[in-house]
Write a structure and sequence with these properties.
The complex is a heterodimer of chains A (323) and B (324). Chain A has 323 residues and is an alpha/beta fold. In chain A, helix 1 crosses helix 2, helix 1 packs across helix 12 and helix 4 crosses helix 12. Chain A is globular and about 50 Å long. By secondary structure, chain B is an alpha/beta fold. In chain B, helix 7 packs across helix 11. The chains are: A alpha/beta (323), B alpha/beta (324).
Chain lengths: 323, 324
């Protein structure tokens, strides 16, 4: 059965870990230590943490280019995660994937993805396999509102509904499709799309980790009892740009100034303070999380860059006894 | 040895693979109740049931995606793309996902999936139901591509493809489906990457695959009358291909023709020729000649398609040129 950890303290700690890890990456990127592109999920942590709180290791998730939180919440090793994003040999993908391809199939993390919407068909296939195995596991896919105009969503909504496949479609609606507002990209809404295919839909405040976890818990329990798809639309906030280095001159000041009010971590902190936790508790927790990140980053930075002898390794699977 | 239709060998391979391994399942358009558009999957639904033989909607991207996701989750899917032309709609899942997953995830996983795709003209099916697109996939690291020319190889390569840990594209020529050839009572797997000599000869090596093997054998009969003895080498596998066997044949004949039904330019033949111009250079006594379709979409009208598709006479002319 899935590990259920809906205690707000645990959820807060996981969100904080993702936030602090990404803030460190933000700085490393600014210093020129992260190769390639970096898409941060700062502001969206409650979705990954809330959804993962009801998933077990045998449930699978597929993610997208803004997927650091999804990977860490599913349980990808922190040092392996950092090493991957730094392009090191001890990265979870041996430095061949990077930020957009963090994966750990041993814990059901089927990969972030560089192609918008591409996780949906993969998750549909994973859900079919899980349904064939019959152990009550489910497959979740994270995608942004920017993926709603992709054609594959039609194919996947149709197939999962037609065949009653246990896919939890998790939309992180941050209002932005890269640099364009979603209302200029989509003629309908996710709710109406879901209804068209007869898929149960819920919209939640994606910056309220408890709301996300509760809705996920309700849906996933239904899906385990009787496989079928569900859609959760999480209204959330992309605090950073589409990518690090994006000047965001397409966003207005008013929207930017509202961000701190919508910050999921600040909101969870207020709730915990109201429940009687002390500032000391937070200080200790922050120190503990920072120390965990320091240790992991030190390991990652100590890992060598991959050498060219690994360049063509793993293109195919080595086969013993087959020439 | 009994002779069976190519299609029967495909069907037998799927049946036998499903029987020995519960994780093998079949998905595609009309593959279950209808038994497949060409009847390659006939009887599988009745034997293995709807939990292993899936009639998918007309939605190629998710058919390929199901194969990728199911392979990541411990199954061995066999997906059928009704006509190879339709595979364009599944390209992201095949090229960006299936082909790259093992390498880009650092070797964490293998993706044992098979995509069967009928290619080729000859049915007057027009520009979007006749293409030979195998070179596209051979160009993508992480994919394997096979193209069997007869029943025994169709059986053997499909069994190997399903058993293979990595994604394999099985390309079947539509005009071969009804053709009969020998299939042993106890047919065996054929290793991926191994070519075969369909007809030994000493004057010119003709490297080919798929339905063009038949044309090359016809050309061999015609050339015998002229006193020319060609060796017909059937690649069977396109990625990886059996470079060593091509080199060793070239070392005997010193002349080379490469023939395929696909468009000549930038095709499989170009790769074979380029390698032989390098590693086989010292063996060559004449320029290498390619035979392939002209650089135009596959046409519809009978007269046009007949002129478009390379055949035995084109191979005969190419062989004569290498000897001129």
């Amino acid at each position: 059965m899935p590990i259920k950890s809906s205690s707000l303290q645990v959820l807060y700690r996981q969100m904080l870990l993702i936030r602090r890890a990404e803030e460190r990456l933000q700085k490393l990127f600014a210093d020129g230590d992260v190769p390639g592109f970096l898409h941060l999920s700062i502001g969206q942590e409650a979705v990954a943490v809330g959804i993962s709180s009801v998933l077990g290791v045998a449930d699978t998730v597929s993610s997208n280019h803004r997927g650091h939180g999804h990977a860490l919440a599913k349980g990808v090793s922190l040092s392996g995660f950092f090493a991957e994003i730094l392009g090191r040999a001890d990265g979870v993908c041996r430095g061949r994937g990077g930020s957009m391809h963090v994966a750990d199939l041993s814990i059901g993390m089927l990969g972030a993805n560089g192609i918008v919407g591409a996780g949906m068909p993969i998750t549909t296939g994973s859900a079919l396999a899980l349904k064939m195995k019959g152990a009550g596991n489910i497959a979740a896919v994270y995608f942004g509102d920017g993926a709603l105009a992709e054609g594959v969503i039609h194919e996947c909504f149709n197939l999962t509904s037609l065949w009653s496949l246990p896919v939890l479609f998790v939309c992180e609606n941050n209002g932005w499709s890269e640099f364009s507002p979603t209302e200029r990209q989509l003629a309908t809404s996710l709710e109406r799309l879901s209804a068209a295919f007869g898929i149960a839909f819920a919209s939640v405040d994606g910056n309220d980790v408890v709301a996300v976890a509760d809705q996920a818990d309700k849906f996933v329990n239904q899906m385990r009892d009787m496989p079928s798809p569900r859609v959760i639309e999480c209204q959330t906030t992309r605090i950073r740009g589409h990518f690090e280095g994006d000047p965001q001159d397409y966003r207005n000041k008013e929207e930017m100034s509202m961000m701190s009010e919508r910050d999921p971590i600040a909101r969870a902190r207020s709730q915990l303070l109201a429940e009687g936790l002390s500032d000391v508790w937070f200080e200790q927790l922050h120190a503990e999380v920072d120390s965990e990140i320091d240790v992991a980053l030190k390991l990652a930075k100590g890992s060598p860059e991959p050498t060219s002898d690994s360049l063509v390794a793993d293109v195919y699977t080595p086969r013993l006894g087959v020439s | 040895m009994p002779e069976v239709r190519y299609l029967k060998a495909v069907n037998q391979a799927l049946y036998d693979a499903m029987e020995v391994d519960d994780s093998v399942f079949v998905i595609g358009e009309d593959v279950a109740a209808a038994g497949g558009p060409f009847k390659a999957t006939r009887g599988l639904l009745e034997t293995f049931g709807p939990g292993r033989v899936y009639d998918a909607p007309i939605a190629e991207a998710v058919i390929a995606g199901v194969a990728v996701g199911a392979a990541m989750t411990g199954m061995r899917p066999v997906a059928e793309i009704m006509f190879m032309d339709f595979i364009t709609l599944a390209m992201d899942q095949i090229v960006n996902q299936a082909a790259k997953a093992r390498s880009m995830f650092g070797g964490q996983a293998s993706l044992p999936l098979v995509i069967r795709a009928p290619h080729g003209g000859g049915l007057n099916a027009g520009p979007q139901h006749s293409q030979c697109l195998e070179a596209w996939f051979a160009h993508v690291p992480g994919l394997k591509v096979v193209c069997p020319a007869n029943a025994a190889d169709a059986y053997g390569l499909i069994r190997s493809a399903i058993d293979d840990p990595d994604p394999v594209i099985v390309v079947e020529n539509k005009t071969l489906y009804a053709a009969k050839s020998e299939l042993p009572d106890d047919p065996q797997a054929v290793p991926i990457g191994k070519a075969t000599i369909s007809r030994p000869g000493r004057d010119v090596t003709v490297v080919t695959y798929g339905a063009m093997v038949r044309e090359a054998l016809t050309a061999a009969d015609q050339l015998t009358i002229e006193g020319v003895d060609i060796e017909v080498l059937d690649l069977r596998s396109i990625q990886p291909w059996d470079e060593a066997m091509v080199v060793s044949s070239l070392a005997r004949t010193h002349r080379l023709v490469v023939a395929h039904e696909a468009v000549e330019a930038f095709g499989v033949g170009a790769e074979v020729v380029a390698r032989m111009a390098d590693v086989g250079f010292d063996e060559l006594d004449a320029p290498i000649i390619r035979v392939g379709a002209p650089f135009a979409p596959s046409p519809f009208a009978k007269s046009l398609e007949a002129a478009y598709r390379p055949d035995a006479s084109d191979i005969v002319r190419a062989v004569r040129r290498t000897l001129a």
